[in-house]
Design goal:
GO terms for molecular function: glutathione gamma-glutamylcysteinyltransferase activity; metal ion binding. The protein has 190 residues and is mostly helical. It contains seven helices and two strands; from the N terminus they run αααααααββ. The protein has one domain: Phytochelatin synthase, N-terminal domain (Cathepsin B, Chain A).
Length: 190
């Protein structure tokens, strides 16, 4: 029993559980996070949120943030993968996104923005890549405003376009380097 506790203590020293959110970020579930989200909802700037929330998935591997983001977006856009997921169900999951890069390699190194775009295209989505260095802050904000507004639905019942950002986590004082995330809501005031 003591040996088991020592082993668990040693493992705990070499790992972490729920790292604290850096002060540069606002927790979605906090009072401030809820207020920001409520403001975005009130201003019609959270159009993609509900479709993405219905498809929310936690990445199965530390380097699968790109795959998990793509799975959420593809399923939220109701794109039929044209092949079975499990049983009789056709549904995107991370393990189905191997057309461009071996998943064992993705587990080790993740995917690049260009690989994300190739995966989206070879699985039936249109995808436009805009590298950050070629986009002004004003142009980026305009795209965020459009993609979170009802205009992103193009008259349909669901969003047909999602904005995904690929950024360096260290800029936000977070652990790790590259990360992918869909933009689901925006509060212009903050």
């Amino acid at each position: 029993r003591r040996r088991q506790r020592r082993t668990m203590a040693a493992a705990a020293e070499k790992s972490f559980f729920r790292r604290p959110l850096p002060s540069t970020c606002v927790a979605f579930s906090s009072a401030e996070g809820r207020a920001l989200f409520s403001a975005a909802l009130a201003k019609d700037s959270a159009e993609p949120y509900f479709a993405l929330a219905e498809q929310f998935t936690t990445q199965a591997e530390p380097a699968y943030c790109g795959l998990a983001t793509l799975v959420m977006c593809m399923n939220a856009m109701a794109i039929d993968p044209g092949r079975l997921w499990k049983g009789v169900w056709r549904w995107f999951s991370e393990d189905m996104l191997s057309c461009c890069k071996d998943l064992e390699l993705v587990k080790r190194e993740g995917i690049s923005l260009q690989e994300f775009a190739r995966l989206a295209r070879c699985n039936g989505a249109n995808c436009k890549v805009v590298p950050g260095e070629t986009c002004t802050l004003e142009a980026f904000r305009a795209q965020v405003v459009w993609s979170t507004s009802p205009k992103s639905k193009n008259g349909s019942d669901f969003c047909c376009s999602y904005l995904v950002v690929n950024y360096n986590r260290s800029v936000l004082k977070q652990t790790g380097t590259g990360h992918f995330s869909p933009i689901a809501a925006y509060d212009a005031q903050s």
